[in-house]
Amino acid sequence: MNTEDAIKVIDILADAGVLILAFSGGEPTVRHDILKLIKHASTRRMYVAMANNGIALASIDRVRELKNAGLQFVQISLDGIDPYTHDLFRGVPGAFKKTIQGIKNCVSEKLFVEIATTATRFNYEEIPEIVDFADELGVNWFMLYNFIPTGRGASMINEISHQRRGRNC
Questions:
Q1: Domain ranges (residues) in the chain
Q2: Given this structure, which CATH class describes domain 3-164?
Q3: Residue pLDDT, tens place only, 128-157
Q4: Which residues pair with 49 in a beta bridge?
């Protein structure tokens, strides 16, 4: 959807009385126009939220831009208590470090921050530690989701199983 169409959708939703708008994806921060869309929704008096992987939020300047545009709530996915589990689940080496920095940046900028964890057979034993870690980071909420193998998730099961065989878990 291009920018013009996205703005039309925001207007339709606002005119219909929708009070909260959450950008999700994929990864909404890769949209070149995300700041414009957040600002537009905010000017339409919508509470603006975003679900994302936290990587783009590792830049404090980016967090400030999003907040200044009107972002109020951020849900950041954290799927392991250590880099190995999280990066393997996300399929991006180095994602854990950036995600944690993104969480810290959002907390420091006083956004409402939720950590979202998808429970799988590969990380379920880590969930209590993730909850404690979320508390240590100062986030507002922790949300646990069940794994639904769609999209990239459908092929992930075999990939993760194969990669974890070499690690004592």
A1: 3-164
A2: alpha beta
A3: 999 999 999 999 999 999 866 665 555 555
A4: 22, 73
Rounded CA separation 80/122 (Å): 9
Q: Cα(17)–Cα(81) distance, rounded to whole angstroms? A: 40
What pLDDT, in 10s, does the model give residues 38-95? 999 999 999 999 999 999 999 999 999 999 999 999 999 999 999 999 988 888 899 9
What DSSP letter does each residue of 85-141 carry, written as one string? HHHHHHT-TTHHHHHHHHHHHHHHTT-EEEEEEEE-TTTGGGHHHHHHHHHHHT-SE
Q: Please name the residue that has the structure tokens 């959708």.
A: 9
What residue has token string 């000017």?
43
Residues 6+ apart with CB under 8 A from 132: none
Q: Which two tokens stand for residue 153?
A: 């998730």
Q: Return phi, psi of residue 27, to 5°.
A: -120, 105
